[in-house]
């Protein structure tokens, strides 16, 4: 991954500035437009340490850095690159398919293979989780636009891509945009939850701790009131008052518990940052999937970026995974989580066909 110093040099030169390296700092001459956009002098020194006083500071928190998106404008949001097709031994690869793909409830065979111009969308998202605390981060997803397989994609893997910008390929095969967008909206949710696992667990721990505390406190109050009723020989009116008091305590306990749940509830916001379409020619292996009387052809793709087969997609949540079920109605491929068991009548059903509503008893599973 390119560091901020080298990024700044590239960025300035790309935008028409002169940038000379000088002892870990930069002597820069900005074109008038760029100086104006960045609100800097046309002749400026740029320094990279807050201890350096003579120059404008460039760090991830600096004002100068925060002005850079103005220069990118819309330019950085979408780009396309071409990645050369890999040199691979098709027969060897084909033998590995049976190790790679396992269906829990269906069989398959690998038939024809071919090379196809296909594309991937490398999408970057920012996630922000709000609870009583706040956490944010950036995640990236590589979505196969031909069969909607998805994979996590580490930022460090970008290095392989930075040098290969070229004119885009023509006639790549991909799903229609609506399906791609649908997959792209669904996939980040679960990935953000994975990234935020410790944050979510910590909020749950605090919720449990606080709930336990207030329960203990109010239960003690109730026990004391009961003891009071038992010990003293109270008149009817006094007894009724004490029982009312217990009811009031119980109501307050419910309110406090609800307040805690609201306090530690986690909202996750996901904002798209940028997209890179990666066009390539990849080997495709056509799988014939059989589930009861249904058969379905599905293209298994070899991913030239990850140098491995793509996982089959879950056609409900579009998250990367390697446990696959096949649904009875349309032979959808679905993951363990989306091959659901109804909590009420225990029927298994497909999340892609029925979302979260059991087709047998109509129960809506809001936990999903
Ligand atoms: Zn799923
Ligand atoms: Zn049901
Ligand atoms: Zn289905």
Per-chain topology:
Layout: H1 4-14, E1 18-22, E2 25-29, H2 32-37, E3 43-47, E4 56-57, H3 63-72, E5 78-82, H4 90-100, E6 107-130, E7 134-144, E8 150-152, H5 159-162, H6 177-195, H7 197-231, H8 236-264, E9 267-291, E10 294-303, E11 308-309, E12 325-326, E13 333-334, E14 339-341, E15 348-350, H9 351-354
Parallel strand pairs: 3-4, 5-9
Antiparallel strand pairs: 1-2, 2-3, 6-7, 6-9, 7-8, 9-10, 10-11, 12-13, 14-15
Helix pairs in contact: 7-8
One zinc ion (ZN) binds at residues 314, 316-317, 319, 334-335, 337-338.
Describe this structure in words.
The two termini are 37 Å apart. The protein is α+β, with helices and mostly antiparallel strands and 368 residues long. The chain is flat and about 90 Å long. α7 packs antiparallel against α8. It has helices at 4-14, 32-37, 63-72, 90-100, 159-162, 177-195, 197-231, 236-264, 351-354, and strands at residues 18-22, 25-29, 43-47, 56-57, 78-82, 107-130, 134-144, 150-152, 267-291, 294-303, 308-309, 325-326, 333-334, 339-341, 348-350. It folds into three domains: 4-73, no CATH class; 82-196 and 268-322, no CATH class; 198-265. A hairpin with a 2-residue loop joins β1 (18-22) and β2 (25-29). Strands 5, 6, 7, 8, 9, 10 and 11 form a seven-stranded mixed beta sheet that branches. A four-stranded mixed beta sheet has the order 1-2-3-4, covered by helices on one side. A two-stranded antiparallel sheet has the order 12-13. Bound molecules: zinc ion (ZN) (3 copies). One zinc ion binds at residues 327, 329-330, 332, 350, 352-353.
């Amino acid at each position: 991954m390119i560091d901020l110093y080298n990024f700044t040099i590239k960025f300035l030169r790309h935008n028409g500035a002169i940038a000379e390296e000088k002892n870990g700092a930069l002597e820069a001459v900005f074109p008038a437009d760029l100086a104006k956009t960045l609100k800097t002098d046309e002749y400026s020194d740029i320094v990279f340490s807050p201890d350096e006083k003579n120059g404008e500071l460039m760090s991830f928190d600096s004002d100068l850095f925060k002005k850079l998106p103005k220069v990118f404008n819309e330019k950085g949001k979408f780009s396309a690159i071409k990645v050369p097709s890999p040199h691979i031994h098709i027969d060897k690869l084909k033998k590995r398919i049976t190790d790679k793909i396992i269906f829990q409830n269906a069989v398959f065979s690998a038939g024809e293979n071919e090379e196809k111009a296909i594309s991937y969308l490398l999408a970057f998202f920012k996630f922000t989780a709000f609870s009583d605390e706040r956490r944010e981060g950036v995640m990236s997803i590589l979505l196969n636009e031909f069969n909607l397989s998805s994979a996590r994609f580490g930022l460090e893997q970008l290095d392989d891509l930075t040098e290969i910008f070229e004119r885009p390929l023509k006639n790549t095969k991909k799903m229609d945009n609506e399906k791609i967008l649908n997959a792209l909206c669904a996939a980040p949710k679960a990935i953000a939850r994975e990234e935020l696992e410790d944050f979510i667990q910590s909020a749950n721990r605090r919720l449990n701790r606080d709930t336990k505390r207030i329960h203990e406190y109010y239960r003690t109050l109730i026990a004391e009131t009961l003891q009071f009723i038992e010990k003293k020989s109270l008149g009817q009116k006094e007894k009724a008052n004490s029982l009312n008091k217990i009811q009031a305590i119980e109501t307050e306990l419910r309110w406090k518990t609800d307040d805690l749940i609201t306090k530690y509830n986690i909202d996750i916001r996901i904002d798209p940052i940028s997209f890179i379409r990666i066009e390539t020619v990849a080997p495709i292996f056509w799988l014939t999937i059989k589930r009861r009387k249904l058969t379905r052809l599905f293209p298994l793709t070899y991913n030239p970026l990850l140098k491995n087969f793509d996982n089959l997609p879950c056609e409900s949540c579009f998250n990367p995974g390697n446990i696959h079920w096949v649904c009875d109605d349309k032979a959808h491929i679905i993951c363990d989580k989306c091959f659901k068991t109804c909590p009420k009548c225990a029927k298994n059903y497909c999340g892609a066909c029925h979302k979260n509503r059991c087709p047998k008893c109509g129960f809506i599973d809001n936990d999903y």
